[in-house]
Protein 1
Amino acid sequence: MNPVADELHAQLQTLVGREIGPFHSWDAVNEPMVRHWCEAMGIDNPVYLDERAARASRHGALVAPPTMLQVWSMNGLGGNIPPGSTTENAYRVLEQIQAAGFPAIVAVNSEQEYLRYLRPGDRLHRSSQIEAVSPRKETALGVGYFVTELIRFFDQRDELVGTMRFRLFIYRAHAQAQTPPPAKPQRPRPGISPDTQFFWDGLKQRQLLIQRCEDCGRLRHPPGPACPHCHSLRWNTVAASGRATLFSFVVSHHPQLPSLPHPNPIGLIELEEGTRLVAGLVDVAPEAVVIGMPLTLDFIEDGDLVLPVFRPAR
Ligand code: ZN
């Protein structure tokens, strides 16, 4: 254990458990704020909103939603605290941890406890105490301290009406790993199965292989285990000559993957052997692509992947 960390933890303990307050509320519990809050939260419970229905309920009158507990004593938007409140700093623990080199804060969780329903006209004040500071902890986010603040809410008769425990983690983020220079983005990888392995292996040898039925001799593409004509499972391959024509095409504009050119002309290529395949068209402007144009096979590399592409034949 780091002795510096121990020292800070020990030092913080002197601030733990001290109740600081009161912090007064700007407004009493009131119907307009309840109505706004219920509308924002999508709540239409009549005991909060309809005086007649509330009177007929077990509450006997309107009540405020318990989960609005914290609402009633929030500081103003600019951090303004109502007059008569303590001016003591309730957050010295947080400031000391941050000053010791743990600048980041993340809220961990919050638990509320309600002792009674609040009603319009109730006027709350609250106190704050740092209930606990954990020893220094290592987490996925970084290294730091868990701090639990206990806020106690009292009414105009100084009776406790609810509590809130709010946990924070105050930490120093782990040093970022040295980021390697961005790799050239790779094209999407094909799904390669035992039935198509030969095709991709052939490309690595700079051959465009076409599957051929050993029984009826017909060629087929895309690859498959059985001949669609005679259902034979026996097959071998022939290498395409590379002479082809353009049967059809699209020019892809979206999505614009960083690994691909765009606009990206993609052809349905008819090989002179008779089978067709989909492949990229290169060395041709998208507007110059014409169905029936003669093409010739080439190969491009993308990492360990070799792909067939077709360019206009000379
Ligand atoms: Zn066959």
Note: The first strand starts at residue 19 and ends at 24.
Protein 2
Amino acid sequence: MRTIRDLEGQLAGKRLLMRVDFNLPLDKATGEISNDLRIRMALPTIRFAREQGARVILMSHLGRPKGKRDEKLSLKKVADRLGELLGAEVAFAPDCIGPQAASAVAGLGDGDVLMLENTRFHAGDEANAPEMSAALAALADLYVNDAFGTAHRAHASTAGVAGCLPSAAGFLIEKEVQYLSRATSNPDHPYVAVMGGAKVSDKIKVIRNLLGKVDCMLIGGAMAYTFLKQQGVGVGNSLVEEDRLDVAAELLAEAGDKILLPLDHVCARQIEPEAESATFDDEVPDGWIGLDIGPRTTALFEEKIRGAALVTWNGPLGYFEIEKFGAGTEAVARAMADCGATTIVGGGETAEAVEELGLQDRISHISTGGGASLEFLAGEELPGIAALQ
Ligand code: ADP
Ligand code: MG
């Protein structure tokens, strides 16, 4: 994969179109930016391009405007915040293609930065329309993609435009690919994968792909109950995907003894902070919901993680949004932080859990792309990255 590093010395005076992921969370009441982490993460690539003398043209989507202008989803406020973080002026074009974009680009000097308006104000972006890709490409000499979170989508601003211009990956995508590749090709052993979260259905392909590579897969979270039910273990009122029992059976058969399921369960009668809770061995009794792994399971999972050379983790081990069902998730996060192995975390809620615990600096890599990292771990080609090769 070609990266922006490979373009060192070739960027001066060039119009560099860069796809970033500035799809920031906005406060529902005020519409203000509630977290600017995604801007801060893109700064190294933007700074490098400026230092190299490129004329930097940034584009992103924000929210789901469905192909129409929606002032609430304008990137203007994002451009202003970027300017503050960058400590430089950031120009703004009220459209991402056409004459307004072209004249804004024409006004750029070397090292200047321009933010284009939301690419999804045009239906052609998500449709990957060739006219849209061509119109974006017409603005620039080179294309850099640094939006890992949308790399699994073949859109005009990700895959389409990459086919129209000489292209390369930014530092964020480079780092994601470097780390996630360690989980999928020639992984270090012992390799332990921890899987959890709400649904088996979201992660079947990941489980299947990783089963062929890991020494051991620890499964907790709600998804464990579909596997346990398939094995004839009592699951009470726990979340079970009845239509995935067959797949669970296939995966268990493929896994041999690699999959470890919960041995005990922290349960409640309702998913509420005030609900009565209790820990049960082996089975979840009728009338109870399994909401976290119990202490025996936690000890087993910790021991496996401590012995690993590589650990990947996707999906909380319990309903961690309620503190008393968060112990399993916390224990796994701490075991990963302390184990000395290469540790990779993927998934929106999982990353959130690690950050809430303040452990983000003790994990080798926390992926920023929910869907994109799942597709990568499933062994699938990401169109936004494949287009750069
Ligand atoms: P990620 O975003 O990290 O990929 P998922 O979206 O798959 O994770 O799942 C996260 C959700 O799973 C969390 O909101 C958590 O509350 C829920 N969850 C985990 N364990 C359970 C459980 N035993 N019962 C119900 N929900 C659970
Ligand atoms: Mg999620």
Note: The chain has a mean pLDDT of 96.
